[in-house]
Amino acid sequence: RSSTGANPFAQFEKTFSQAGTTYKYFDLASIDSKYDQLPYSIRVLLESAVRNCDNFHILEKDVQSILGWSPALKQGSNDVEVSFKPARVILQDFTGVPAVVDFAAMRDAVLDLGGNPEKINPICPADLVIDHSVQVDFARAPDALTKNQTLEFERNKERFTFLKWGAKAFNNMLIVPPGSGIVHQVNLEYLARVVFENDTTDGSKILYPDSVVGTDSHTTMINGLGVLGWGVGGIEAEAVMLGQSISMLLPEVIGYKLVGKLSPLVTSTDLVLTITKHLRQLGVVGKFVEFYGPGVAELSIADRATISNMCPEYGATVGYFPIDENTLGYMKQTNRSEKKIDIIRQYLKATQQLRNYADATQDPKFTQSITLDLATVVTSVSGPKRPHDRVSVSDMPQDFKSCLSNPVGFKGFAIAPEAQAAFGEFQWDDGKTYKLQHGSVVIAAITSCTNTSNPSVMLGAGLLAKKAVEKGLNILPYIKTSLSPGSGVVTYYLKESGVIPYLEKLGFDIVGYGCMTCIGNSGPLEENVVNTIEKNGLVCAGVLSGNRNFEGRIHPNTRANYLASPLLVIAYAIAGRVDIDFEKEPLGVDANGKNVFLQDIWPTRSEIQEVENKHVIPAMFQEVYSKIEQGSQDWQTLQVSEGKLFSWSADSTYIKRPPFFEGMTRDLPKLQSIQKARCLLFLGDSVTTDHISPAGSIARTSPAARFLAERNITPRDFNSYGSRRGNDAIMSRGTFANIRLVNKLVTKTGPRTVHIPSQEELDIFDAAERYREEGTPLVLVVGKDYGSGSSRDWAAKGPFLLGVKAVIAESYERIHRSNLVGMGIIPLQFLPGQSAETLNLNGREVYNIALPESGLKPGQKIQVEADGTVFETILRFDTEVDITYYKNGGILNYMIRKMLS
Fold first, then answer.
1. Cα 638–640–643 angle (5° rounding)?
2. pTM of the model
């Protein structure tokens, strides 16, 4: 490193002037002739490396490695590690509260170790949008929105007060108040810079591409706007906020070519479900996907954002759409200034980052290319338990029937033949008797930034509702219908286009501005509906315009959940069941007794576009976002302290100083092998972060419920696990508390395990506590894709607090592996072809894991001994940085020691 940390690429800095201002930028194309062959997503990584190169955080070697990207790069055979400094961080409140709690606790720890606590501050911009707290407690009523928001504040006042304190106590942190919208939609419509424009010491401005990491896996949505971004663990995001670079493996880049045009009757939702299934089958975990081809120009930015949003569901790190003139048009539509757009255009042209999808000579080289003809996309849903299990709507009747019969699995419920005709009846408030059967819809939610950010599908739903009401169709009163827009702009254009009254007539009243049903905040179903489902063992359904439908996520009583466009959400709600054949069966009859079919009320793409062009205008974005930071009256009147250190309350059940830094010293702890460990849980494939750390409701019989009840909290005020992520005592008790957890150590599904020495079956937390009292370290033995789903730092923090020292899995989801490392838990991977099954493990063994005294190396073999069975595993510390974090006891401990030094 030079004495000044001078940038060795300074000679490639160029300038241009506009309106009296000088703009600096790095002329990437002049560095190396290979530049114009690089995928556009890789060009963003390169620019960041060039601009930040100081031969300390970012090395010249990183720049050369990125420049050397080629289609020959293959993950797992010739891995190349590079460092990347994102331009900013984005958080939502479920994952943001624990991040701010950690920052507050780190300030305390630095003070305890004799340092200056104010050094703990975000260095890059951090935006936190409060969107995960509001629930659908009330629906199908004009006052549902007001009532839900009032309840949200009652339940979360303590959390909101803490976040408002954080906004004042920490520099460089913007908090977007509750009731504003969904984080990814607010990011798309308002927060995204596309190109950053920062002041320099000489009065000029430096330009560079916007890039972002977020504590939510659907951060990827912003790639639809040409902003490179992906989800990371909360722990990793905190390090970026503190000025650290991300260590990553240079990815393979899959070119996904779009050709042709969509049918006038299909939606962007149908397209994304098609792409999700296709890419899951291809296998793109850990890879970048970059879209190209003439078909891309046919897609609006909202369509592209829908496709990028579901990137975690198809498994890629990003689904990137390079910036084109459509992107700049969207910026104008969303009220970004003409001057800014002109500067962005000039910068992108100068650095060869402005794409013309019709010009094949601009196509870069890819690791692999695949093609989708948009004309082949058909109307689709996905389910009943996974986002990538696409079913064409025409196949749904047969598919659902098969799912009832199939063995228990992602496409099966194992309902015995004689029980498939089961039904139950109940009385409703209107005095009528209603019938529920397998496939009955009980939740229908237009929800989630995946779709509510897209005016075409939202206005499409509004037009379908209008036609349905005009035909005299309605929705059964017991179906919990809801509409939760991702920003105030949606409400604005739905009102302006005149479709709101029709949506309300069908029961789709606005219930809140947040994620709501998509993340399991669906609220309660009526008791007589729940009793009928449970008493008769019915597989009832939720239909939602969301991005995830894992079992147990949406609602405990909807065993089948289907992702669908907002239009189909309404269609299935009118039908009242998911096994309808829309082509042959009518939705109802009109005033003349004539059958009404779905095709009679389905709007065409051109109908929708006509309304969209008229009603989605820049003035709406100006009106909504000019007030975004004000918040409601409730937010404005929240009183917060002015101190730089947080005053923790011993009585709080929401915010508690975490124990992560207790007993921490300035010196590194000694590396120790894991001896005489027990297996806490013995799990199968596709264990999601929802299984590990559920975000939904707190069951009344759970350890967390007992903890709250002992503190005189009534069940009505338990709130959700997600809302209590600022309190480790509750979150450790909520670890693996998912009712759908399948632990092979016990016979029944649910959050239970066996304390092996005593053979006693206990709640998982209670078993872990007993092991702790006995001084026994713990391991988890699991199958493939461990930790898939939402990026959730508590899915690593929780096991850490339960005493888990290592996980032995067949494979890991990318973000979750990183989070385990960040908490000092060792991720071990069975050798290819091996598993717990092939090694005849049953989870009742004593485990010994020998760590070499000579030191750890990325990817080395680690020997495990389990009751005489000796086998090798791969150490999934993928980089030297991973090892550094582990030696420190985790990433946050590393950051504290770094700040102190």
1. 170
2. 0.85
